[in-house]
């Protein structure tokens, strides 16, 4: 017998083997052909940045969204020989904002340190192979 169970924000559905043997009766909802952001990618046909693009990972809407948009726009529209070289101040402002929210924007070094610590903890107590003598 299949049943559903709500666990926090998640809905868990348990099904039986028999449930899987019958064809699905689910109907797919057609995508809205008038959605201006659907399947557009990062850059819209008019050349503007699609801030709703999932490829931005929500960066445009977080607490540092405005700083991100400013820095990204500056870089995107840059015509300098070294693209984005005039955007250093915008990127600095964005970085300062992100440092105020380390739980949302972890630094690469912090992520690498956590991963290194996890690997070290896993290896603790394991016998390390000794170097071969020559």
Overall description:
This protein has 4 helices and 2 strands; from the N terminus they run ββαααα. The chain is mostly helical. Strands 1-2 form a two-stranded antiparallel ribbon. A hairpin with a 2-residue loop joins strand 1 and strand 2. Helix 2 packs antiparallel against helix 3. The protein starts with a strand and ends in an 11-residue tail after the last helix. The mean pLDDT is 79.
In short:
This protein has 134 residues and is mostly helical. Helices cover 34% and strands 7% of the residues. A hairpin with a 2-residue loop joins strand 1 (3-7) and strand 2.
Q: In terms of structural class, how would the helical and strand content be classed?
A: mainly alpha
Count of β-strands: 2
Write the element-wise H/E pattern from the N-terminal end onward: EEHHHH
Low-confidence stretches: none
Radius of gyration: 24 Å
How much of the sequence lies in strands comes to 5-15%
> Mean pLDDT score, rounded?
79
The 3D shape can be described as extended
Spatial strand sequence of the major β-sheet = 1-2
Q: Report how far apart the termini are.
A: 65 Å
Q: What is the percent of helical residues?
A: 25-40%
- Specify the number of helices: 4
């Amino acid at each position: 017998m299949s049943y559903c169970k709500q666990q926090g924000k998640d809905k868990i559905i348990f099904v039986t083997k028999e449930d899987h043997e019958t064809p699905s009766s689910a109907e797919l909802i057609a995508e809205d052909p008038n959605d201006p952001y659907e399947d557009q990618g990062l850059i819209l046909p008019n050349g503007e940045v699609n801030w709703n693009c999932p490829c931005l990972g929500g960066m445009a809407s977080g607490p540092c969204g405005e700083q991100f948009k400013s820095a990204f726009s500056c870089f995107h529209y840059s015509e300098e020989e070294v693209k984005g070289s005039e955007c250093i101040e915008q990127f600095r402002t964005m970085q300062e904002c992100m440092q105020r929210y380390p739980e949302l924007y972890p630094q690469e070094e912090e992520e690498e340190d956590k991963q290194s610590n996890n690997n070290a903890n896993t290896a603790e107590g394991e016998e390390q192979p000794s170097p071969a003598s020559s």
